[in-house]
Amino acid sequence: MRILIRKLTIIFALMFLSNLVLADKWSEQFPHIKNTGDIPGECSYESMSKKDYSGRTLRINTHAVPVMGEPTALHAEQFSKLTGAKVNVVHTPAGDLYAKAMIPFQAGQAPYDIVFGFSNFIRDWMQYLEPVPEKYVNMRQMQDVTQSHIGVASWDGQMIQFPIDGDRHYLKYRKDVIDNPKYQKKYKADTGKTLKVPTTWKEYGEIASYFNGWDWDNDGELEYGSAEVMKKDDLMYAAFFSRAAAYSKNPRTPGGFYFDLKTMEPLINNPGFVEALEDWVAATKYVPPGGINFGLGDEINSFGGGQTLFSFSWDDAFVKAMEDSSPIKNKVGAAPLPGAEKVWNRGDNSWDLGYNQAPYIVWGWASAVAKKSKNHDMAFDYLCFFANDANHQADIAIGRFGVNPFRKSDFDPQIYIERQGWDPLIAKSYTATLMGMEEYSTNRVFPLRVPGVFQFTSAVATGTSKALAGQLSSQEALDEVAAEWKKIIKRIGADTIREAYAVGVALEDNKN
Amino acid sequence: MNFNHKFVFLLPGLLVLIGILIFPIVFTVRLSLSSWDSFYPGLDFIGLDNYIRLFTDDKRFWESFFRLSFFSVTTVFLQYIIGFSLALMVWKDIIFKRFFRVLFLIPMMTTPVIMTVIWRTFFHESLGPVNDFFSLFGITPLWLSNSILAKFTVIIVEVWQWTPFMFLLLLAGLLSLPKEPFLAASIDGAGPIRKFIYVTFPLMAPISIGAIIIRLIEASKIMDTVYVLTSGGPGTATETSSYYIFIKGLREFQIGYSAALSFTYLIIMIISLTIISKLLVKLLIKKI
After folding, report:
1. What's the whole-number mean pLDDT along residues A126-144?
2. Average pLDDT, chain A
3. Please, which pLDDT band fits residue A67 given cuts at 50, 70 and 90?
4. Number of domains in chain B
5. What is the CATH number of domain A2-163+363-404?
6. CATH number of the structural domain spanning residue B226
7. Contact A289/B37, CB-based, under 8 Å?
8. Is residue B231 domain-resident?
């Protein structure tokens, strides 16, 4: 027995050492993975080096550099060196990704083997995409992906998009202000309330208003309450849904957040959404000057640059704030999106009183393989290589890459403490916040994923921006959106929309 | 002698004309009679449904069209005034004449999208240098997020970018004017203002009409400035027809409907520009 144990120990030690040798070999050649070296797996550097795609060309349409465009190009270059494939990468602005793929899709052409886009394109694109083969779905790398993001990448149980990124909206705040005893005392004295991380949107508004327009970090410049994506057509509808989730996603009324699944009647103008829009209109008073015209980039720079107390949207503002060059590194915190003290019950047509909170698992970057591509094997291998363990761990540490956590192993605070120098408390609150949304919440809102999704979201952007600009009241603006939604439903067909919407509702109602 | 072969020489030009002008227009008309969108691709036939929707149920298109008219007329008027003034300035013998001629052309030579990004940075309400300056006086105008000021900002950028084009055409016109009428006016004792009113301006009228019409055609397509500067906001305060068609066609992917919008817009532009040019001729030439 002892001999057996000794032999096994030697074998394991040799295996470990051989892995280290290989890791060194690959990280020397590819410095991008210098922190981890190659990590064994189905799509590791070692595995890919055994493939031979010489004489073949892979064509990829991705986003502009750097967000997602830079990692796509970097991994394309690596893939090319390892397999001998020629990889052509085309970079396209975010707003054109949909049309640039959709036009050839509809014309029956396949100018790209791989297309990058947003995960909520899935219903419009899925008929032109090749489902992810079982061997990739079942591999170890995929088992680590959170259930939420398996759901985001899949349609009715079938994986259509290859998971490469994970997104959700959450609250970012200035920890050095909220946790500051001096400000806590001052806030209490001035308002009679406790200064703490806001758990409702009303609290968010009160605290943001209080800290709006004065120099609370003593840097000689004015600071403001909140930075938000309010610019029309620039992802703003997602910011609105983040605010609306608390007032409108009622766990007691399953069967639809955006529409009533049974009747396909839009819910966008119910009192829950209207209350959220009224809060948002009030927020125009505590954003920086011109904040009503902030796109995502402005929001990232504003909060990440230390201009505001709060922000909520994708990870990027938080990652920017925690970069080494940031003046507010280790001065920020992450928390779930605020909730509300009431939630609309559309069954009773009344407010249910009591605390309600609903995470918004917003859409993120997605990648998929064109059905008409003649290079399915190579295309899936590329995507698998893109998201292999070593590349993924290196990518999530680089803010500008736009690759955010979506695997269970990403929610280990040690990664951020050891590799990125984060304060342990911040790393723990960040990972706990994200993990809580991904794996533990049962009252989540998922992005709208129905045919003609852009028509619906564009109507929301137009209506809400009219309210923010003061052209219409909140109720009038959302009535206009609801009327537009009804027209879209009529054009595309209620049954067609219902069939697609049911897939998203199943996720929200925890049926998948 | 058979001259039929001469038509062979016309063929390349004819093919180009069909390829780049006739076919796109015919195809757009056909597309406008279909319901092609992201979910139903293809040239089905739905009759005039898209046009009925446009004329009975799309207030936003007509609002954007009237906004476009306001932008076009205002910017072209300002461009004409400023462009003519600059052209008159460098037409005379002033020092550094050549330097100024080149300097005034620089905005036109820059890429509109890039320059608009730079302007957007200038006018950024909390981080831009324009408000840094105004904050010295205790004010921070909301250049991009106030409905009225956002229109004003779009006009500033458009005028800055395209006044040089007007300047170039008008300067070319001034340089080609005959000297005799000016000599005659001088002999008659006309001062600079009288010379301008009775000689320069009337002689420049045909060129002015051409320049104004060319600029009106260009200004009526204003899209990149709005796209980069305001995305049509705040609300719909700066949304123009071309931006709206872009949203419907390439963002919402309502291809059939956006074709109907485009074709209607084309017809309206042809009619209105014809009327405007006739009016200008009547006002500026026939009267003179």
Report:
1. 95
2. 91
3. confident
4. 1
5. 3.40.190.10
6. 1.10.3720.10
7. no
8. yes
Q: Is A465 within 8 Å of B60 (Cβ atoms)?
A: no
- AA identity, residue A225: G
CB A335 within 8 A of CB A431: no
ipTM exceeding the 0.85 mark: no
The burial of A361, by beta-carbon neighbours within 10 Å (0-12 exposed, 13-18 middle, 19 or more buried), is given as buried
CATH architecture of A170-361+443-508: 3-Layer(aba) Sandwich (3.40)
| Residue A108 identity | G
Give the list of residues 6+ apart from residue B268 with CB closer than 8 angstroms, or none.
Answer: B65
CA-based nearest distance B70→chain A, Å:
19
Residue type, A33: I
What would the pLDDT profile of B196-244 be if each residue is shown by its tens digit? 999 999 999 999 999 999 999 999 999 999 999 998 989 899 999 999 9
Count of CB atoms within 10 A of residue A189's CB?
8
What is the spatial distance between Cα A510 and Cα A462, in angstroms, rounded to a whole number? Answer: 31
- B251 and chain A in contact, CB less than 8 A: yes
Domain that holds residue B278: 58-286
Digit-coded pLDDT (tens) for B175-202: 999 999 999 999 999 999 999 999 999 9
Q: Which residues on chain A are in Cβ contact (under 8 Å) with B247?
A: 233, 458
* Residue ranges per structural domain of chain A: 2-163+363-404, 170-361+443-508
Which class for B28: exposed (0-12), middle (13-18), buried (19 or more C-beta within 10 A)? middle
Please name the residue of chain A whose CA is at the shortest distance from the CA of residue B124. A290
User: How far apart (Å, rounded) are the C-alpha atoms in residues A241 and A244?
Assistant: 5
Tell me if chain B has a CB within 8 Å of the CB of A100: no
Closest listed residue to residue A125, CA positions, set B245, B253, B46: B253
Segment A392-404 shows an average pLDDT of 86
